[in-house]
Design a protein that fits this description.
Structural class: mainly alpha
Distance between the termini: 18 Å
Order of helices and strands: HHHHHHHHEE
Largest sheet: 2 strands, antiparallel
Shape: globular
Helix content: 55-70%
Oligomer: single chain
Number of helices: 8
Amino acid sequence: MDIVSLTTFLTPFLPYLLKAGEKATEEAGKKFGEGFGANAWEKAKALWNKLQPKVETKPMAKCAAEELANSPNDEDAKETLQKQLKKLFDEDKNLAAEIARLMQEDSEAISKVVNTFNQTISGNDNVVQNAVGDANKFIGKVGGNATIN
């Protein structure tokens, strides 16, 4: 189970997923997901539908998800959610297996989101470019500290 990829994938969708059921939020999430391909929003909903009941029973996990939804660039919030999900998966091997299976189905939708949002840039005078799709070319100069995964 790749918890880092799971949380990286879910992070941009969390504000919409936490308010799922509200018609306007559903439409906004669907529209947002279209930028990553037709299946991204549906994949995020499927994963969250499996995770949410367990997350709701763990106050720290629920709080971590809410914190990450409010601050998607907060690495501490992301790490906290990852730790909480690891605890959930350690307690419930069936849930871990189901999430792993869902992540393997249509993994292209997940990789588009993960590859777009999985970067850390620090230092001065940085320019960051995100692209979604195939055959993208990036031209630029990296100086100082940069970690791109």
